[in-house]
Input
Amino acid sequence: MRTLAVLQMIVVFCLISCQNPEDITNPDDYNIYFRKESLQTDNIRSRIKIWNQFIKEDSLQIVEIKNIASEYTQLFEATAEIVYLKKAEQALLKTLKFGGLRKENILLDLARNYISQHRFKDAKSAAAEAYKIYPNRFSKLVLFDACMELGDFIEAETYLTDKEVINQNDFDFLIRFAKWNDHLGNMSATIRNMEKATLIAEDSKNKKLIKWSYTNLATYYGHAGKIKKSYNYFLKALKIDHSNAFAKKGIAWIIYSYEHNPEEALRIMNIVTETHKVPDYYLFMAEISKFQKNKKDQTLFLKQYKETVKDQRYGTMYNIHNALILSEEYKNFANALQISEVEIAERSIPQIYSLKAYILNLSGRHKEALEIIKKQVVNQTFEPMAMYYTAEVYKSNNLLTELAAIKKELNESSYELGPVISQRILAL
Output
């Protein structure tokens, strides 16, 4: 039996470590974007300084305040520093207080801000108030966004299928239709709609819109296993904005998960985090170190993550990550479960229920975990991590037939899940 176990471990190791996919990345393609950072953030800060010169403490210059809110939002998108997202919120709230502009538009901007903060109930309330003032297609689209995050999928569908909203030639509709199809697990329709949206963005000549389209399309291509296309679109985004950290991280993921080159992926991420100290980037680096079996670096990156999210302004934005770390790394199941309950209270989506089930399963409460999976997860989401948690629960409950079926699907998501999770799946 011991010999058999050793052989099984060798097979698992070879399946993960000995894969030799044809490398599609080339440092010469992206190293040029790691030189001097874009002047984008400096330009935004300069504009904010100019706007502030026009505004006094008790100013009623609402247009200027709204412009500052927009600039702070762009600065957050460029740097991921939470302080700028909160400053944008403060400016929008001040604009609402004084009035003078179309209130519904400010409320929709505020709703988008709250979505970025993971304050999804607040986002829905702001969008609903905007809809009450002026029930147009734009307020319906933002309500769709909030409902999707909250797990109100039936209501979300009513907004998306509204005659006023449906428009196959409209960028805003198409990107949401792509998201809806992704929710349904229809990847071909997801990509088809995102490709159409990207063409519209390109025709608009709006660089911000084009860049956003390229990175989102690249992400969807990756999920569909079209890695070369994913890589090319991340490069196209970087050509527009050399400082695009999301695109750089996307390339690092390809190098790590597809090409199994953790050293190069870490090199990229170390450069990225010099200017973009995004909390979950440190978690990505910790995962790479775990794959390398480098416990020292893994601990270091986890520490950097914890130091970053200490900032109270993040609120609940990293609750899911915190719950996973507490349960997997520190076996603090009580606190991890408490966090999962907070998330469920905020948005009762299948992915969050699967997380709670996973934590329960890790703590040894296998039957409770299975009940949640059966009631809240099975056939309600096609998200790979939720399916992985389901597989772990099936194994703990000795449901081997169900486990075999889900493992087949999970093997097709190995790129999206990454080598560490893929190792676990092969060992199930």
The two ends are 17 Å apart (CA to CA). The chain has a mean pLDDT of 89.
